[in-house]
Every structure is written in structure tokens, then in C-alpha cells.
Design goal:
InterPro entries: AMP-bd_C, AMP-bd_C_sf, AMP-binding_CS, AMP-dep_synth/lig_dom, ANL_N_sf, Hemocyanin/hexamerin. By secondary structure, the chain is of the alpha/beta class. The protein contains 18 helices and 30 strands. α3 crosses α5 and α9 crosses α10.
Length: 609
């Protein structure tokens, strides 16, 4: 970490003038982010109705050639809500929603929100057993399925617990053309035709702890966990991001290609538009080559990002019109320090609202002050504590209390569980309890274990360091995959890297391995220059032992996070891949391409690492 990353008082003071004009909205947002009133009606349905009242003829949702005003969108959601209520759905029930990014998805979620029904946001990439698990886990009373996913659902429908109430949305503008539903489905666009467009009374019956939707996160067993996201958490994000941090206006348009089964798109981006009755512009899929053309076409002024999205945009060939856009603000998480400043400069972006949060967590950071290379500031109670990676547990003092790290130091991030910052947990109570530390600083307190290593950089600001699961041990030392990736990415010729630990037979720990994508054929790459660079920048134990050369774009999840499990399984085994693999063998100065004979020698213990 550079000393320049430490936040100082003069830096904080230099940001004050630009925040003063936004102070009323920020104070409002801060109050919303700390709300504890369990009797106040709030949440997504209430917010949509308020935005409709403020800006009825303003564009609420824009998709391809479809533009819906707040009045149109709200009325549509009301008709869906009226119909769902007419078939017996009520507060506390769950509806599985399996629709790709398009207005029908958003209208369905708002309709459920207005009824107090929980929308299970099915990951649209799920298939087979994983889809069955996600669906049955939440015991839905109905399912809303887009035409694009009917075939996927039909493959497993016999194993789904729900047998009736399957609804269909055609893959088109269903307000213009309802389409024809397949056998076994009711066409929702047709069913709602004569339903009421008025706001239902139930909209004002959703409160702080009422479930809003389920968001699925990766489970340790390989099967997803359903995280309860309630109206109170949505309200806090609405205040914290929509009013306090992102601060768009009714004339702004925020563009997102992020899947709406993910909280960054569904919560952060959308709430940022709704806060001041601005416009949400959605794309069905992310396209690096078409991204900026779409931004210009829709006159967007902000966009949401996550994971490697910004990297993919940055790797596109430079064009003379790169700065020919109206984007002034971007919001998301995962913008790498190695491209942060260059990305802002290239595309003329003023504000990067990097954030740190999780679907299930109770602590969040936001880059309100617009500093570089930080997840920003947190107003809630948190602690970064010393962590023993070898023992895989926090360090406690002689009194049994955990120990906070000093400024510039990294440790495990914890979020205090209070009335203002509750931990709502998972559908499985046992998993919920495992995520809680008790008696941390005093008898009876409780803190949520984020599982993330963070660095304290002063004035309640932090830097993300690593997920605990993304750390491996080699040569008796702990290696941070994130930090090694940042070093690799800084070498000229490497476009992208993914670092992970792999096992070598009869060897302690895990050896570092990196999948790298080069900007030239691997036969022309400067491996000697890379070795010299790594020896300068990294301790010997952190230098990757193996390099796997990837000719194509890296495989990522729907939210642009690298897929490491498969890479760990294939490791350096040439029989499991077509990639060229290079190894840094003991007593050698540089990498050499691995062949079957050398691999056999490594596996048999001929080479002692």
C-alpha cells in the first residue's frame, strides 16, 4: 500500500465545498440509512409511488426502443399486483421470478413489493439441479417466467415443488403485444388487462422487517444460499446510495447491464434512479464493444459496474470519441487500482462511487468523498480486527477480546449487529449463526463476520484487500490473490490475471498459479522481463509457480467475477486443458513451458519446491 492511500484531514477538508450544496439530500439519506421505525410504511413499492407523484411523465424505465413514464410503469405494476392478489397471494408469500433484464422483470418485482410478497430473484444462468435447489428452497406460491427461460424451467419442472400458477411473459414488449403463452402457463400480460391501475392499499403495509426479495449467493457446498433482503435494507440503500452518495437528479439516466438478480443492479442502481425520480436504462446483456454506443444512444449520465466490467471496457481499442459521452458518475464495486485513474481520464468520468457491501451483510462503505482506490466511508458501526490466517480465526487478547488493527494495517472486517444494523441472515438458521461472532469487545455483543480482509486507511475509510477464501498458504506464508493479481496486471503485456493456489503432490501448502491473458502470442512474450519484475515487486513466496496462458476472455460469473473453482481443479495438469502452461522450477531463473515429462517429474517429487 502506498502512503498516498492514507486519508488525511486536509484531503477530507478539500472535499467539503463540493458536498455542501448536496447537504440536504445527504442528511435525508443518512437518516433513511439509519431508520429503525418498525411502524413507518417504506420500501420499494412506496418509493415508486412517491417518484410517480413527483415526476409522473418522466421516464422511469428505458429498454431498447421502449420508454415507460413513471405513471405508465407504476400503473403496470399495480395491475400485476391486483391480479396476484386476486388469485390469493398475500403478504408473506413468495413468487419465483425468472426473467432476464427487461421491464417485465422490474414491474413484477414492484408488484410483489406492493403486496408484501417476496420476489425470489432466480439467477437466470442457473440450470438443472442448481435451479431446482434455488426454486424449491424458498417454497414459492407462483412463478413468473420469461419466454427466454421457459425451456430451462421445463427441463426440471417435474422436480419443482410448485405445480400450479406458472405465469409467462413473452420475449417482447408485452404492453404492445402480449404474445401467446406455452402450454401449462398463463399469459400474465393478458391476465392483467382488466385489472386495477390504482395504487393498492397494501403498498402502505410494508415495513422495516418485511421481506422484499431473496437474492442468491454462492454456497460453500456449491449450492446457492437464499439471502433475505427486506424492505428496511432496501430503504437504507435507497437513502445511503440514492440520496447521500450517488446523488442523481430527475434529468439523469443511469445505465446498467448488470443482471437484476444481483443487488448492485436491482438495489444500488435502481434506487439511485428512483431517489430523485430519474431514469433507469437497462440492457439485456453486457457488450464491451457496444457499451458506449448504447450510452450515447440513450444520453446516459451514469452507469453501474461490478467486477471486471470496467476492465473489459478499458481493454477495448482506444477511439477518438472515447470522451464523447455524458457520463459523470459511475457506481459499483471491483474497479481495480491498476486502471482506476486511467479509466477515469480516458472516458472523462468525474466521480467513482466505489462501494463495499454484500447481499447478506450489515455493513457498507461508499466512496462519498470521491477519493481514488478506496471503497470509501462507512457511517455504521464496524471494526477491522487482527486475524490469524494460519489458525483461521481472529486474534483475541488475554481477556478474550478481539483486537482492532491500526491505521494502515489490514484485518478482518466485522459489522456490529444492532437495531440500526441488523443481520437478517439466511433461510438456514444454522448458517446464520455461523456468520456471527459473539462477545467480541464486551460480553453480549454480536458482530457479523464479512469474511473479507480490509485495510484501515483513516477517517473511517477502508481499502478492500481480499476474501479470506482467496488467500492461500505457501512456504509458511499467506499469499493474497488480490495483491498478486494487482502486481501481475501492472506488467506491460499482461491484460488480465486470475491468481489461485494449487496443490502439488507431497508438498505442503498450495503453490501460486496465475491464469493470464497476454496482448501477444505467448512465444513472443517477455518472460524474462516478467520474472525480473516479479522479483522486484513480490516476496519470493508470492511469485506464482505456474502460469496458465489463456487466449480467450476469462470465464466469469454473471456479475463479472472470475471463476476459480474449475481452475483450481485443472491446476497445471496438461491433460485437462489445451492451454500452454509455464512453470518456475526450483533453481531456475525464469519460467519455462511445461511438457508432459516435466509435469510427471513435478508430480513424482523430482522437483523440490
Amino acid at each position: 500500500m502506498s502512503s498516498a492511500d492514507i486519508i488525511t484531514l486536509p484531503q477530507i477538508l478539500s472535499k467539503v465545498p463540493e458536498l455542501v450544496s448536496n447537504l440536504p439530500a445527504m442528511i435525508k439519506g443518512s437518516k433513511m440509512a439509519k431508520i429503525t421505525d418498525t411502524k413507518k410504511p417504506l420500501g420499494l413499492g412506496v418509493a415508486i409511488e412517491e417518484a410517480t407523484s413527483k415526476n409522473p411523465n418522466g421516464a422511469a424505465v428505458i429498454y431498447q426502443d421502449t420508454e415507460l413514464t413513471y405513471k405508465q410503469f407504476n400503473a403496470w405494476a399495480n395491475r400485476i399486483a391486483d391480479y396476484l392478489a386476486s388469485i390469493g397471494l398475500k403478504k408473506g408469500d413468495t413468487v419465483a421470478v425468472n426473467v432476464e433484464n427487461r421491464p417485465e422483470l422490474l414491474a413484477s418485482v414492484v408488484a410483489c413489493a406492493k403486496l408484501g410478497v417476496c420476489a425470489a430473484l432466480i439467477n437466470t444462468s442457473q440450470r438443472g439441479k442448481v435451479l431446482i435447489h434455488s426454486f424449491n428452497l424458498v417454497k414459492p406460491k407462483a412463478a413468473i417466467v420469461g419466454a427466454e427461460l421457459v425451456e430451462t424451467v421445463e427441463e426440471v419442472r417435474g422436480e419443482l415443488d410448485l405445480k400450479d400458477n406458472f405465469f409467462f411473459f413473452a420475449d417482447q414488449d408485452t404492453l404492445e403485444n402480449p404474445g401467446e403463452a406455452p402450454a401449462g402457463y398463463k399469459n400474465l400480460a393478458t391476465e392483467i388487462k382488466d385489472c386495477s391501475s390504482e395504487n393498492p392499499a397494501s403498498s402502505r403495509q410494508t415495513f422495516l422487517r418485511d421481506p422484499l426479495f431473496y437474492i442468491y449467493t454462492s454456497g460453500t457446498t456449491g449450492l446457492p444460499k437464499a439471502v433475505v433482503f427486506n424492505h428496511g435494507r432496501w430503504e437504507k440503500a435507497y437513502g445511503g446510495f440514492g440520496f447521500s452518495a450517488v446523488r442523481l437528479t430527475k434529468d439523469d439516466r443511469i445505465y446498467t447491464t448488470l443482471p437484476f438478480y444481483h443487488a448492485t443492479g436491482m438495489v444500488i442502481c435502481w434506487a439511485s434512479a428512483i431517489a430523485h425520480a430519474g431514469s433507469l436504462v437497462i440492457a439485456r446483456k453486457f457488450s464491451a464493444s457496444g457499451f458506449w454506443d448504447d450510452i450515447r444512444r440513450h444520453n446516459c449520465t451514469a452507469f453501474g459496474y461490478v467486477g471486471e466490467l470496467c476492465r473489459y471496457l478499458h481493454e477495448q481499442p482506444e477511439k477518438p470519441n472515447d470522451r464523447d459521452n455524458q457520463i459523470h458518475t459511475i457506481v459499483g464495486n471491483g474497479l481495480r487500482p491498476s486502471i482506476w485513474k486511467d479509466f477515469k481520464q480516458r472516458f472523462g468520468i468525474e466521480r467513482v462511487i466505489e462501494l463495499y457491501a454484500s447481499s447478506e451483510g450489515n455493513v457498507a462503505f461508499t466512496n462519498v468523498f470521491n477519493f481514488d482506490n478506496t471503497v470509501g466511508f462507512s457511517p455504521v458501526s464496524y471494526a477491522i480486527v487482527k486475524y490469524d490466517k494460519e489458525r483461521d480465526e481472529p486474534v483475541r487478547d488475554k481477556n478474550g477480546n478481539m483486537i482492532k488493527v491500526g491505521k494502515g494495517e489490514s484485518g478482518l472486517m466485522l459489522g456490529e449487529i444492532t437495531d440500526k444494523t441488523p443481520f437478517d441472515g439466511y433461510t438456514d438458521p444454522e448458517k446464520t449463526e455461523k456468520s456471527i461472532f459473539r462477545d467480541v469487545f464486551k460480553k453480549g455483543d454480536a458482530w457479523f463476520n464479512t469474511g473479507d480482509m480490509m485495510r484501515d486507511i483513516g477517517f473511517r475509510h477502508a481499502q478492500f484487500v481480499d476474501r479470506l477464501g482467496d488467500t492461500f498458504r505457501w512456504k509458511g506464508e499467506n499469499v493474497s490473490t488480490t495483491e498478486v493479481e494487482q502486481i501481475l496486471d501492472g506488467f506491460d503485456g499482461i491484460q488480465e490475471s486470475v491468481v489461485y493456489g494449487v496443490e502439488i503432490p507431497n508438498t505442503n501448502g498450495r503453490a501460486g498459479m496465475a491464469q493470464v491473458r497476454l496482448n501477444c502470442p505467448h512465444g513472443e512474450f517477455d518472460f524474462k522481463g516478467l520474472c525480473a519484475y516479479l522479483k522486484r515487486e513480490l516476496p519470493a513466496y508470492a511469485i506464482p509457480v505456474f502460469l496458465r496462458i489463456n487466449e480467450q476472455a476469462m470465464e466469469t460469473t454473471g456479475t463479472f467475477k472470475h471463476q476459480k473453482n474449475k481452475l483450481k481443479e485443472q491446476k497445471y495438469d496438461l491433460s485437462q486443458q489445451d492451454n500452454a502452461v509455464y512453470a518456475l522450477l526450483p533453481k531456475e531463473d525464469c519460467y519455462q513451458q511445461l511438457d508432459a515429462e516435466t509435469q510427471k517429474g513435478i508430480d513424482s517429487g523430482e522437483y523440490r519446491f
